[in-house]
Amino acid sequence: VATHFYPDGDAVGALLAFGGILDQLGRSYILAVDDACPVKYSFLPGFEKIRNLKNDPLYKSFDRFVVLDAGALLRTGSAQKCIEPNARILNIDHHFTGDYYGDLNVVDTIASATSEILHDLTLSMGLKITPEMAQALYVGILTDTGRFRFANTTPHAFQVCANLVALGVDSGSITEQVFYNMPIEQVQALAKTLASIEMLDDGRICLAGLMQEDAVADTEGFVEHAASIKEVLLAGFYCEVEPDLFKVSLRSRCEVDVSAIATSYGGGGHRKAAGFRFRGKLELLKARLEVSLRRALAEPIR
Ligand SMILES: [Mn+2]
Q1: How far away, in angstroms, is 186 Cα from ligand 1 center?
Q2: Which of 187, 190, 258, 295 could bridge to 250 as Cys pair (CB 3.0-4.6 Å)?
Q3: What is the mean pLDDT of the chain?
Q4: pLDDT digits (tens, 9 = 90+) for 81-96
Q5: Residue 282 CB partners (closer than 8 Å, separation 6+)
Q6: Which CA distances in Å does 212 have to 248, 250, 282?
Q7: Could you tell me if 150 and 272 are in contact, meaning their C-beta atoms sit under 8 angstroms apart?
Q8: Which pLDDT band, with edges at 50, 70 and 90, does 98 fall under?
Q9: Cβ 265 vs Cβ 278: under 8 Å
């Protein structure tokens, strides 16, 4: 059971919850990611079961492969090496850039999170949502809705969360652990990110980022600071993860679909939140991104 690289709260939550489904079905399985999972999710029961294929590769392939929260199979990185040629793939996702790569695709683009889909799937299969699964699923919805802020925060997302709280989830404590428990190094990296802010296009575009020497492993949410400035419509955050390799996150606060921009760079995501990886010098990345973002703002709304 794999998810996308740079795993976020929904990726981790969905993995752990799917493990809970398979436990109840009496199946053996491996939960794997081509990356380390952010330690802020380590309070989730079962977190230590998630295998980081970067440090701990699997020299083995499987004839049943489940992909969670990944709009493209490529997004699972090296986990793809574990798929047997004739394997059956189950794809469970909520990204609309999804290309239906599974033999079975459970894709609901209205769902706030893959975790929301898994909540409904568990119940429709007549299985139980254990307290451990409930915590994991809550983290997935909490993070993918931007703490119930994004347009994907539907009545159903709230209904699912209400059910998870009724099952014993302590919503306040989970929010504390995920968002108000930053290591000092991360706060210092955030300070460097804020110091790097560049306002473009009369303040409608904001870019900020980190070079490798200042970067930390977990920069989830840094882009939100750029996107929370008054009158900013499009925001981008770049983080150099290897020399001349940048992880870029985009946010839209207008009609511009940033997943289309991310797709043009080989990435993907949602209309309001998307990302891609860029190989090259920072100057080139910034110059190209500025052109893409300015052009998107200048285009008539589709
Ligand atoms: Mn998700």
Answers
A1: 23
A2: 258
A3: 95
A4: 999 999 999 999 998 7
A5: 209, 211, 238, 240, 246
A6: 13, 19, 11
A7: yes
A8: low
A9: yes
